[in-house]
Design a protein that fits this description.
This protein is an alpha/beta fold. It is 42% helix and 18% strand. The protein has a six-stranded parallel sheet with strand order 2-1-3-4-5-11, sandwiched between helices. Strands 7-6-8-9 form a four-stranded parallel sheet, sandwiched between helices. Helix 2 (46-61) crosses helix 11 (267-282) and helix 3 packs across helix 4 (102-111). The termini are far apart. It binds tryptophan. Tryptophan (TRP) binds at residues 47-48, 101-102, 121-123, 146, 177, 225-227, 230, 251, 253-254.
């Protein structure tokens, strides 16, 4: 009996050791992860979640599910939370960092000038001071940009709602991505003599009040690619739709969450390109400098037929 017990103990120990040796693996004898990549996502909203899913799917599709271990953290839309997270990535000696959204990339860039940082969904990487030249990244940072062409969105707006004579903007001035798109929008509308009003938010809790403050003052909303507003998009849509105000947005997810329409990029594709860039830099040893920032340039029109029906706008051209 005693012998059996010690034999059992020996087996247990053996299994325990085997499990340790395979810490990052799947326990089925496949090789353990040999790279650790910190993944910082600014906040969880549908578009950023879709990007993260696409990055992880692409790494798996290319056969790296077991060799690249992704250490994911949600920044909770909070600067100090993000700084703590990236400091941990650095202290852990991560092999690379992937970020999703502008301020996540800015936090990572301020924490390390050595670990390669591959960003995704940074609307204006130059304004965000992540690179000084899109073609020639000269530090440890490069990635994929979701630059927005506002003229495509306003052209669509002119077509769908030709009676709109003024626009209201709601955004977080602390988001460089939003300010960059808003500056473009202001230039576009000013050139056409179309008036606009603005309401600012600093956090998700302020979005509803800001939207309400413009009801009755503007004919339509234009919402930039703003993470704070996107996080409260269904509330925005509820107020706007009740008041029959068209909402033009800068990202497909904000249409799915109740906005009227956009001309936007494909975020699944953006996530895929981010993963491909990580593989080139981390696995194939390419230099950051040889990986210019990739800018998504294909836009497609996305409309929300339900919202259109609620507010009485004909979008049939884009649904048939
Ligand atoms: N481009 C945004 C940024 O730079 C991030 C983003 C991606 C986003 N998809 C979005 C913001 C959809 C709002 C809605 O931070």
């Amino acid at each position: 009996m005693k012998k059996l017990l010690s034999l059992l103990t020996a087996f247990t120990l053996l299994f325990a050791f085997a499990a340790c040796g395979n810490e990052n693996g799947n326990g089925n004898g496949t090789p353990s992860a040999s790279y650790t990549v910190g993944l910082l996502q600014l906040v969880e909203h549908p578009s950023l979640d879709e990007i993260r899913g696409a990055i992880i799917d692409e790494l798996a599709a290319q056969g790296y599910a077991d060799t690249i271990h992704i250490d994911y953290a949600n920044g909770q839309n909070d600067g100090s939370t993000m700084n703590t997270i990236v400091q941990k990535f650095v202290a852990d000696g991560d092999d690379a960092i992937i970020t999703i959204a502008t301020s996540a990339a800015q936090s990572a860039a301020s924490a390390t000038s050595e670990i390669p940082i591959i960003f995704s969904a940074v609307t204006d990487p130059v304004a965000a001071e992540l690179v000084s030249d899109l073609e020639h990244p000269d530090g440890n940072v490069t990635g994929v940009s979701d630059y927005i062409d506002v003229s495509a969105i306003f052209t669509l707006a002119e077509e769908l709602t030709p009676d709109v004579k003024s626009y209201g903007f709601v955004y977080n001035m602390g988001e460089v991505n939003s300010v960059s798109v808003i500056n473009q929008a202001k230039a576009y509308l000013t050139a056409k003599n179309i008036p606009f009003e603005e309401a600012y938010v600093t956090n998700i809790g302020e979005v509803t009040t800001a939207v309400q403050s413009l009801v009755g003052k503007v004919d339509a909303f234009f919402l930039p690619i703003d993470n704070t507003v996107a996080s409260a998009m269904s509330n925005v849509a509820e107020i706007a739709n009740e008041n029959k105000i068209p909402v033009y947005v800068a990202a497909d997810s904000m249409v799915y969450d109740g906005g009227l329409a956009t001309a936007g990029i494909n975020y699944k594709q953006l996530g895929k390109q981010t993963a491909d860039m990580l593989i080139r830099i981390l696995i194939e040893g390419e230099a950051i400098a040889d990986n210019p920032v990739e800018v998504m340039t294909e836009y497609s029109v996305i409309v929300n037929p339900e919202t259109a029906a609620t507010i009485g706008v004909d979008v049939s051209k884009y649904t048939e």
